[in-house]
Amino acid sequence: MAKLVFCDGNQIQLLHTGKEFFASLIAAIEQAQHEVLLETYIYANDQTAQLITQALCDAAKRGLCVQVIIDWIGGGKQATQLQSVFLNAGVECRLFNPWFKRGLARTHRKLAVIDQSIGFVGGINIIDDCVTDDGKNTPLPYPRWDFAVRLSGTLVPALHKEVTAQWLKMGKLQLLQRLKLAVNLRKPPMSATHHFSEAALVIRDNLRNRSTIQKAYLKALGSARETAILANPYFAPGRKIRNALIQAARRGVDVSLLLGVGDFEFQDAVAQSYYPKLLASGVKIYEYHKTKLHAKVAVIDHNWATVGSSNFDGLSLFVNHEANIVVLDPVFARDLQRHLQQGLLDATKIDPHCVIRLSWPKRLKHRLAYWFYRIIMRIATLGQYR
Questions:
Q1: Domains delineated in the chain
Q2: What residues form the catalytic site here (predicted)?
Q3: In the annotation, is 195 catalytic?
């Protein structure tokens, strides 16, 4: 596993929902002078996405180098058409892993780098905040609950290297070139002489970073002493993370899980199969029904915080390309924790007694969902998911 390297000298702004994220991203693109790099999973064809597309095309017309990576699955039916629009405007665009030519992995990362000086990391796709992201465009009662960060400082070059490397790897590289690229990616980011925020870019891929994100969570939970609040829409982690949550709660840590539900009945059943043991160990579980919860964030002990794209499921932890930022800063953590506390207030707390009294058909449904999911993930991850 590549070593997790923290560097100081970063200015990091938390962006809540697409309203803040898209305004900040468009402003950065419009002010760009040299280069714009963007990597995303979903790129829709709605009004919000069209604003991003226009900003990217305008940047290319100003003579900037503009490169866009869209996942072939996440881009959906319009991905090829969007690629043509970009190319006609002078924007270079590549689709990640079309027709699964390079295995099952998808790029689930949501990254942007402008002029090698401003970066964006998070969980927000290029899609309108107020419609579902399942292709049906069903209106949501409230904007999608999600986060990203805008950063400047010493970590941006590392982010630029990752997005650039992804672009190069999607092209035609000889073996020696790929080896040189891998060596270059191992170089640690520069550290500053002054302090703003300590932060680390945490990447998951299927080469040198196969378990980096999971190990970052495990280390933080293992050293937790007071509180841990984790929000995620798809909860189906392997045994290691489940045990880390349980052990933290048993040590007296106030552990709260804020989970998105209602998207997929099967996924909900898998998540609910873990409830009895987690609740019995003292982990608090909240289900968020107010709108679509898409956030993949956490705050531990009022100092450690993460924002990114990685879900707590087998695909994110063991198959897909993901990117999180981990921030060691009580001010940033306090800002994110404030949103998480509001999310807990807006959610439904699961009563352990109600879970114990579930009917046997529901318990059977949860157990069958768990075993089916476990078998599928063991096959997809070549036995890594446990």
A1: 7-185 (3.30.870.10), 223-380 (3.30.870.10)
A2: 108, 110, 115, 294, 296, 301
A3: no
CA dist 70 and 40 (Å) reads: 5
Q: Check if 46 is active-site.
A: no
HSE, CB side, 13 Å, CA atoms: give it for residue 347.
27
Catalytic choice (263, 301, 335, 346): 301
Q: Is residue 296 flagged as an active site residue?
A: yes
pLDDT of residue 187: 57
Residue 174 has pLDDT above 50, yes or no: no
Of the residues 108, 292, 321, 339, only one is catalytic, namely 108
pTM of the model: 0.93
**Would you place residue 84 in the very low, low, confident or very high pLDDT band (cuts 50, 70, 90)?**
very high
Verify whether residue 194 is a known catalytic residue: no
Candidate list 110, 160, 339, 366, residue with the active-site label: 110
Nearest to 234 by CA among 203, 265, 209, 204: 265
349 is catalytic: no
Q: Pairing mode, if any, of strands 7-16 and 227-232?
A: unpaired
Predicted confidence (pLDDT) per residue in 258-293, tens digit: 999 998 999 999 999 999 999 999 999 999 999 999
